[in-house]
Amino acid sequence: MGILIIVLLLVGYFLRVRTLDQHAMEMKGFYQPDYDTSKATLLPSMFINGERFYIKMPTSAGDTLLAFGDSGGGISMLLPETVEKKHLQSKLKTGIFKGIMPVKYILFKDLVNNTNIPPPFPLRIYNIRRPFARVAKPFLPVPPANGETKQLTEFMPEMDIFLGQNFFMGKAWTIDYIHQQIWVNTPLTTNDIGKPGVQKIGFKENGNHDNVFGHPSMVIEVNGELIDVLFDTGASLLLSDNGKKQLNTAAKTIGGSFIAASIFDKWRKEHPEWKYYKEADKKSDVIEVPIVKIGGIEVGPVLFSKRPDEDWSKGMIKTMDKIVKGAIGGSAFKYLKVTIDYNSELIKFEQ
After folding, report:
1. What are the structural domains of the chain?
2. Each residue of 6-26: b (16+ CB within 10 Å) or e?
3. What are the tens digits of pLDDT across the range 235-259?
């Protein structure tokens, strides 16, 4: 009888958590930011060869953490190595994900000592509870030290924080690759629609037309063909030894872009003169496209790494509003000043 009661309690607990998580996907007012968005603010940053960037985050302990900006990535997180290196164990809290998985996390306000740096936007799909109440304040989970985090630290050992899609959500950004500056609170409005360099972006929505993920879809043009892609500031090529030789660099990783295998193969067939680097991105081939048009502006050359079509049609479609055919990143953005507004769902490109 005692075991039956325990089983019933556990079933009731899981059903309650599942109901709460389902409700979070549709609820209004899921997160109300309490920081100032009234003025454009220049953030301390460091660019990597003009293609990717870190935001410098000062901590309450007087340290500075390097936070890698990856708009096409998953959830923002504090790397476990950083907790050890910066002695942050005392700030760790424990919550439960999906009613069963314990998760370590640090509240953003307990870590970053600069009110100009906005916190990540909580993701509806990633609710941490204690035990039923949702942790509503912005936080950074600390994942276990597994293969994925080890790969990040192997190729980018200076990284302390990974800033994924939810860091960029709910805000307006200007990423000026030309002058290597990052600004926040730089909104675009309906008055900008139709202006040079401006296009709509799309997000996956719930039934109330609220964005539930932060992966923006946009359009590029190559040889007159319009291609839907992911806006991906963190797109990186992890160079093989062969790739380093072919690209004449000692870097472990460089900024890149990705394209579906079907389009990659078509480019190779139609343009044998385009530079081609076999297995340069670990085991993936890379092609150099001479000219890519973004927001009506021609830029190039642009490196694209080959990815299976299924990565987009079965993978990224889970967090995007449409099936895209690739991701555009720093190998193209390095020529541009980019303003993206997640609220008005507009993006602007300037040269």
Report:
1. 37-168 (no CATH), 189-350 (2.40.70.10)
2. eeeeeeeeeeebeebbeebee
3. 999 999 999 999 999 999 999 999 9
